[in-house]
Amino acid sequence: MAFSIPTLTATSRWLRGLVASAIKGARADLWPNNLPIFIKVVAMAAGQGNLRAEWIFKQVFVSTADADMLDLHGYEIGLGRKPAAAATGLMIFAAIDGATLPAGAIIDAGGLSFSIRAGSVAAGNSISVLVDALETGALGNLPAGAEVRLREPWDGITQAGEVGPLGLSGGIVKEQDEPYRRRLIFRKRNKPRGGAKSDYEGWVGEVAGFSTTGTRAFASTPEPGTVRVYPLLEGSGAGRIPGPADVVRCADYLETKRPLAATVVVVQPVARLIPVTISQLATDSAETRAEIVAEMLDLFDERGFVARGGETFPLSWLSEAASRAVGETRHRLTVPPADVGLLPGEYPVFGGLTVVA
Fold it and tell me: Nearest Cα to 206, choosing from 167, 234, 228?
């Protein structure tokens, strides 16, 4: 049965009637009289009690709990927030065969500093070093080929270098409230079941920077005992597609979680761009178009998924998203003309909005 917290005015009115019925001859509506003051004080106390009860009720559920209570929900099921992490990966410098770089040497790139994890010796005409960013966060995630520079010169090694072919990855901030909330809800809906597909999707969400939302795991029919996992990162649009280094990180973590008899293959999803064309937009303005684009982006982020094959991205979702936009009163969706079929491993990404007459 639904219950709405009464206003202070409604509570005061109820208390006035209660006093009048309980105390013979009492009149809370006459002045001077201390009964109205007494009633207002009691009403305020009752209101505070109701607000406290409402707050407690919200903390019972992960979907409505405050941030600090989310941590308590996670503690009870052994699922804490993912901590902040520093980016890591390989950097390459031209060098004379046999030249060395010691552990702890500093490399600068993109306004950030990186430290060499372990000493390395040049082989041939180059030297590769494993580095860690000195600060946590996503700014340390650099693409392959990005320019880097040794802070100090070292014999036989050029100061200018580049990020290795897999790039630098793994740099994230401490897990924020809403991603953590989604992961807790996923865990409550999908209890661990000894290697079920949802277990793999949940394990992906435990890896720094990855999300359970949209991630899919499939049993590989031609390969008994093999599970193919298509992971997605936190973020938006094509930015959710993990890079090669991210795929390796995810695979390494799943290797520590998989059942003994299972073989896990982690596969990079393929972005499937879905452009949208709308005609007969009744209120065509820059503001309305921006609202439609925002709704489309939210749709793809919230309901997008990696396809297992034979699945479609429904046309009705696209039309519904356009209809939700502030300022939109009527439109006709012309592209795509029908539900969009997805191949195995494809992840739908919003491909832009075109408005025609």
Answer: 234
